[in-house]
Amino acid sequence: MAPALLPFPALLSATSSKERAENAYSKRLQYSVNAYSFNDEFRSGEMNLFDMMEFAADIGLNAVDLTSYYFSSYPKLPKKPEIFALKKRALELGINISWTGIRNNFVTADEEARKQDLKMIKDWLDISSNIGSSILRVFTGRNQPKGYTKEQVKTWLVDAFKDCAQYGAEVGVIAALQNHNEFLFTADEVIDIIKRVDSEWFGLILDISGLRTTSDPYAEAEKLAPYAKYWFIKEHLYHNQVKTPTDMKQMAAIIKRHNFRGYVSFESLSDGNPKRIIKNMLEEFKKEHNKS
């Protein structure tokens, strides 16, 4: 066999290069956990952000996603000592603080309220930069105000998100929209906003459970995949508002098809032990993703 293959060194080289690229790809995917998984534990005082980071390191996660309202200073902005203590502990544990998140509402007709939320986002873009996070999660807001068309409200969103992106570019943090089954319900609506904002400092946190108005949320996720800066995987998604267990095989296949090399973050919204649920989700997804 060897002599027969000698005339085709390029073929052998191409094959080995492809294998190396695929192996490198599989190693580049990183895993994280979202703080909301431990909402009850944070609210009761059973856990804090430091505890969550230790859990993440213990089960082999690469990063954590910290949410503003779990900082000890909330609703006030955290001071630098708190920010730097979390940053230092992450370094000691060998994990990253991949992103932070806040809660905003840009679909309200109250212009002053929108301005206040825009200022809050800029404040948290600063905090994200200081803590070493590359992405800040933002939202649209809930509902549609009476007396305004959806297109009118979308112009508020686009204007606000453009402002977020511009400031994000100044501090080195991407403002990323999490599709959250609120004002933008379909992949096409989300893509429309992303294209209209048109900034490399604005992107998408693809939340698979936020695609609830379709019979095939996997097809919707496939549409959004090229725009994803970050994937948000939960244990359930929705087919026409009906909750069903997430098929990790399908999710892993979509992510692999689009050659995604960033963070996949897990979040549990179910009753039960969130640590056990997150660990099981991580193991199940990795098992499917690592299949050839």
Short description:
The protein has 292 residues and is of the alpha/beta class. It has helices at 2-5, 9-28, 39-44, 49-58, 80-93, 111-131, 150-171, 187-197, 217-224, 248-257, 274-289, and strands at 30-34, 63-67, 96-101, 135-138, 174-178, 202-207, 228-234, 236-239, 242-245, 263-267.
Description of the structure:
Helices cover 49% and strands 17% of the residues. Helix 6 packs parallel to helix 7, helix 7 crosses helix 8 and helix 10 packs across helix 11. With 292 residues, it is an alpha/beta fold. The protein has one domain: TIM Barrel (Alpha-Beta Barrel). Strands 1-2-3-4-5-6-7-10 form an eight-stranded parallel barrel, surrounded by five helices. A two-stranded antiparallel ribbon has the order 8-9. The chain is built from eleven helices and ten strands. The radius of gyration is 21 Å and the shape is globular. The N terminus is likely disordered. Helix 9 links the parallel strand 6 and strand 7.
Distinctive features:
292 residues, eight-stranded parallel beta barrel, 49% helix, 11 helices, disordered N terminus, globular, alpha/beta, TIM Barrel, two-stranded antiparallel sheet, 10 strands
SSE blueprint:
Blueprint: H1 2-5, H2 9-28, E1 30-34, H3 39-44, H4 49-58, E2 63-67, H5 80-93, E3 96-101, H6 111-131, E4 135-138, H7 150-171, E5 174-178, H8 187-197, E6 202-207, H9 217-224, E7 228-234, E8 236-239, E9 242-245, H10 248-257, E10 263-267, H11 274-289
Parallel strand pairs: 1-2, 1-10, 2-3, 3-4, 4-5, 5-6, 6-7, 7-10
Antiparallel strand pairs: 8-9
